[in-house]
Amino acid sequence: MAWIRLPRFRRAVNVFNPKLFESLSLAAFLAWVGLGSDALSSSAYGPPEIYYALKGHEYLAVFLAIGIPISVFIISAGYKQVIALFPDGGGGYHTASTLLGPKAGLVSGSALIVDYVLTAAISVASGTETLLSSLPAYWYSERILIDVAILLFLIFINLRGMKESIKILLPIFMAFVGTHIIMLGFGLLSHVGDFPSIASNTIAGARNDDQLYGWIFIAALVMRAFSLGGGTYTGLEAVANGVHIMREPRIQTGQRTMTLLATSLSLVAGSLIFLYLMYHVHEHSGQTLNAVLYTAITSDWTIAGIHFGPTATVITLVTEGLLLFIAANTGIITAPIVMANMAVDRWLPERFSYLSDRFVSRNGILLVGFAAVAILLATGGHVSILVVLYSINVFITFTLTMAGLSKHWFTQRHHEPHWKGRLTISVLGFIVTASILAITIFEKFDAGGWFTLLVTLIVVVLGYLIYRHYKSIRKITAELDETMLDVVPEHLEPGPNLPLDPRGATAVFFVSRFDGLGLHTLLTAHRMVGGFVKNYVFLLAGIVGQGEFKGIKALEDLKVYVEAEANQYMAFCRNEGMAATWFATYSTDRILAMEELADVAIRYFPQSIFFAGRVIDNRARGPFHGLLHDEVSFIVQDRLQHDGFSMMIVPVHVHGIPSQPPRIELPISMSPDMELVQQEDADKEGSKAKAQAQETGEAAEQPTSGNSQDVPRN
């Protein structure tokens, strides 16, 4: 699929521009908007699920209204540690990979990818249903088309750039915050006098249930409610995943964003659960629990005799529904970041680590967006189905992250003076998240949770197979390097500065580093055209992907590496008496970089012939080879040939050329003085000749031995 190229919104920018990272990075407030909306939007379905689980024991809502903020701050405190340990981003994936091992990282990353795809799907479906509930009924039948249109719009604005998408959706986020501060704040303040009676009723209810069922029943009921409302916690990990896109100093910005997110989520979720109890809210047909609550809160809102409570309720619900679309955008933003980090570690195709000319992982955005579209179409956009699949995976990542942190701080107990407090937080986080994960799987397994786990397992297996493929390729290239680099002198000196002839024929090579593939291509081309080529030019493209887009320091390191590799080619050529030079550039787009390098070579050396190497190994080539390798050389070859320049792709057979000649099926005509010998006939002729030679040898030995007696002796 390397031939598929979407139109660019602008030409590639200078990646070494010192203002680039500042212009693209997010301050804490914008990061809260872009990455925190997933967690805040869960107020539309997380707290209601918790309250429904308490049916008949609603007094326990007081404990949950207190316990949820505590658990949110425990988990967020753990992720603040993740931000400090991994300021280059990666979040739960890097934490599990580094602290528990690569395979744990694969499981964590795979769970996050599936979770974010489901986040995009369920958020759009839920938001559409919320908005359509205030419209005529016939609109509801069009919800799938509306869902797909919204997802396509979110894909488009994210392709334009992450910061741009956040700014477009910022007014919706602020409207949600403003309306809910007014709604929830008024609901609490207007019933402050009810707090003593609620406290006494809670104590009485707890004593009664303790006598009837025991405290174990109460604890189990609270834990079950926690687990069924696990969707409330989703989105807390997004900040740690995207900390690398935040403004310097990253650690402080990331931790400040996490504080904003944890505080806002705790206030909204805790207040909702407490207000359900305070207003004695019960489920009404055709209305969400939040809609019933908002109606109760605004029931007596009047100004100058005009009752505007219903209008305020509708506005609040609309902002809630629209916020769900921003939550879907969070999934489309954050999943490609996780995928890019996994691609850098070779768990996913390397193309997912590439950045577009707008510095977003375009391949990841497209995959996540269209996967969400496919899920919506498969489930008919029914929130009741999607919600079952939703909250399991994020707790897999939570649990692995807290386990990794616990292991880290325990092993650092002799070196880190504050290890006890940090270990306590991570252990508490592990207990909370592991408990919710276990109960959620138990409760939702038969209702569809098994399908989420199956999909996650499939992603894990695919990731492992992709890693094995890349590992086999690395082994092949290592063998090629070991073989070819033997021709390089141990202490390579650049030799004299040989003059270049800009008007002479020039061999131009696309190379990535000083390795066996590049040397094989160079030596093959030298044997073919060395008789008339006057110059040897090497083109190197430093590709700025997710692994390099961490700041100016990482880009400077990339530049040093690329130039060192280029200088080795020039030194080798000069050592062999060949005039050589090199050109290098740095871009997020490999094809664009190679095209512009070719233009530079043509400008300086008009008589250029281009070469690129390609590793051929039939044993490692499978049906998905094209998805795992971009094969951009063929695209550049086509465009150079279109412009009138020759380019040869040199095959490098790492295990030798196949010994069997190709089979000939069609009748062949040829010149009268040319005779075609089939392989079968050649084998027969060879066997016959060998037998005749043996017979001739035996006959020659007999007369020699007989005539020796007749030789006269001197």
TrEMBL record:
Source organism superkingdom: Bacteria
- From the Swiss-Prot or TrEMBL record, give the protein name: APC family permease
> Which species is this record about?
Acidithiobacillus montserratensis
**Upper lineage ranks?**
Bacteria, Pseudomonadati, Pseudomonadota, Acidithiobacillia, Acidithiobacillales
